[in-house]
Write a structure and sequence with these properties.
Layout (H helix, E strand, L loop, with lengths): L2 H24 L6 H31 L13 H16 L2 E3 L2 E3 L1 H18 L3 H25 L3 E10 L3 H13 L3 E8 L12 E9 L4 H9 L4 E6 L1
Antiparallel strand pairs: 1-2, 3-5, 3-6, 4-5
Helix pairs in contact: 1-2, 1-4, 1-5, 2-3, 2-4, 3-4, 4-5
Amino acid sequence: MREHEVILRLLLAVLVGGLIGYEREYKHMPAGFRTHILVCIGAAVASIIQMYAIEETSIMIIQHPELSAAIKTDIGRLGAQVITGVGFLGAGTIIHEKGSVKGLTTAASIWAVACIGLAVGLGYYFLSISSAILVFLVLVSLKKVERKFFQRRNISVFRIEFAYKQEAVKKVAEYLKSSNIKVKHVEFIIDEDKNEEELYLTREYTILIPNTLHAEEVAAQLSLIEGVDRIELI
């Protein structure tokens, strides 16, 4: 393999990894621009090493035909090891927090970038470029479709202290309902040091928040309700 061909493949790996990594970086995901580039370059290097090994083996067999039965080359072995290894890197981007799982899309994009990097290293340019464009479009364009038709919810827990109970509790319930936020569980926090009127003024709400909203945004809106003395995101 000529030197300019190696440079071309490595630069294409940088371009492909950077394109997909930019979208992840823009969304503030755990693995972003540089991570995707490094994964793609690494996969491309693994493929190029394998191509070198195949070329050297072919030359050796041509020079020494008697070795053709003894020398065997598995063209898919090194690539399979790369994909397996990248699986551990992808697992590191998956976060389990407060009952919700985040980072699966980023883990999938890292795995896809590794596969594309292998294709780049092997010199399958049309496959590399077309698959990279398709992955980028899936990450960018289908996000809106996913939010519209497959709305998912994140679990959050709020501790709310009320200055007075009746009207404020009613307004909190009205806000949650109008914002399409489902209350999964309400727990009363009893402080024995308080008098009977203040005994049940603190509650913990376990709620399911749509992806269109953020927990901090919900907390800010709840804090504006008259009668809500203090709110804490647990």
